[in-house]
């Protein structure tokens, strides 16, 4: 038998595979350890703040009336005024 064969009968790995280095993963690069799993959008602060602003504007639309451009002269409220709804600010 040959000297470079091990017990299973296959050849030993070549020396060239030892010189090649494999790239690091995202986990290794960030070195965060044991942290809870988060969404990808939460890892990017720019995207997170963009989504946060979008949600805030949607919520704000329910509180404040939108601004409309004046195309013609003022002819009253285009959607009518509901007597049951009051959208005023209380004075302190």
Total number of helices: 4
Rounded mean pLDDT is 80
Question: Which residues sit in consecutive blocks of at least 5 with pLDDT less than 50?
Answer: none
Strand-residue fraction? under 5%
The helical percent reads 25-40%
Instruction: Determine the structural class based on helices, strands and strand pairing.
Output: mainly alpha
Report how far apart the termini are: 98 Å
- Biggest sheet: strands, sense, closure? none
Element order: H for helix, E for strand: HHHH
- What is the molecular shape? elongated
Work out the radius of gyration: 33 Å
Number of strands: 0
Task: Describe the 3D structure.
This protein is mainly α and 92 residues long. The protein is built from four helices and no strands. The longest helix has 17 residues, at 45-61. The N and C termini lie far apart (98 Å). The mean pLDDT is 80.
Q: How would you summarize what this structure contains?
A:
The protein is mainly α and 92 residues long.
Question: What keyword list fits this structure?
Answer:
single chain; mainly alpha
Task: Break the fold down into its secondary structure elements and pairings.
Layout: H1 16-19, H2 26-30, H3 40-43, H4 45-61
